[in-house]
Amino acid sequence: MTREADILLSNAIVITMDENFNQYEPGALVVSGDSILAVGPEQEIKNSFTAAETIDCGGKVIMPGLVNAHTHVPMTLLRGLADDLRLDVWLLGYMMPVEREFVSPDFVRLGTELACVELIRSGVTCFADMYYFEESVAQATAEAGLRAVCSQTVMKYPTPDADFYEESLAAAREYIQRWKGHPLIVPSVAPHAPYTCTEDILRATAELAVEFDVPLHTHIAETALEVENARQEYGMPVIPYVKKQNIFDAKVLAAHCVHIDNGEIQTLLHHKAGVAHNPSSNMKLASGFAPVVKMLEAGLNVGIGTDGPASNNDLDMFEEVRLASFMAKANSGDPTALPAQQTLAMATRLGANALHIGHLTGSLAPGKRADLILIDINTLHNAPRFRREPDGIYAQIVYAAKSSDVSDVMVNGKWLMRSQQLTTLDEDNLYEQTAEYSKNIDVFLIQREQSVLSKLIAIGGASEAESFEVQAKVRISDPQPVLAAIEQPSLEILHTRHYHEYDTYFSFEDQNQGYLRYREDEFIDESGEVSKIRYRLTLLGPAREDHFPSDVLLSRSRFIAPATHSLRFYREYFKPSGESFIEKDRLRWRVLFQGTEFYINLDHLEKPDLGYFLEVKSRTWSSRDAQHKASLAEGLITFLGASPEKTVAKDYIEFVETA
Ligand SMILES: [Zn+2]
Question: Global pTM?
Answer without folding.
Answer: 0.83
